[in-house]
Design brief:
The longest helix is centred in the middle third of the chain and has 10 residues. This protein has one helix and five strands.
């Protein structure tokens, strides 16, 4: 079985949405902290939320408010997890 990368132009992203419980993202911050979470929204709204906010990646009492640098959007199917979009915060 071979894998293929599908390129989606950012201008086409409004044609796609992530309104499904089978979609999730992988998030990476400037410090290298990563996590995965389910998502619901358009690509644009997801990018706005994660790239415009800072997130606490530290433990109490050493809270670290960090900036997101990378987002990968995945779709789960019965047989595979597919990377459908990847974004970098400039």
């Amino acid at each position: 079985m071979t894998s293929q990368k599908i390129k989606i132009k950012e201008t086409d992203l409004n044609l796609y949405s992530c309104n499904c419980k089978d979609n999730f993202i992988s998030v990476q911050t400037t410090s290298g902290y990563t996590w995965k979470t389910e998502i619901n929204g358009t690509f644009e709204s997801i990018k706005d939320y994660f790239f415009k906010n800072r997130f606490n990646v530290g433990d109490y009492p050493n809270e670290i408010m960090d900036k997101v640098t990378n987002l990968n959007v995945y779709k789960k199917t019965k047989t595979a997890t597919i990377l459908i979009a990847s974004f970098q915060n400039k």
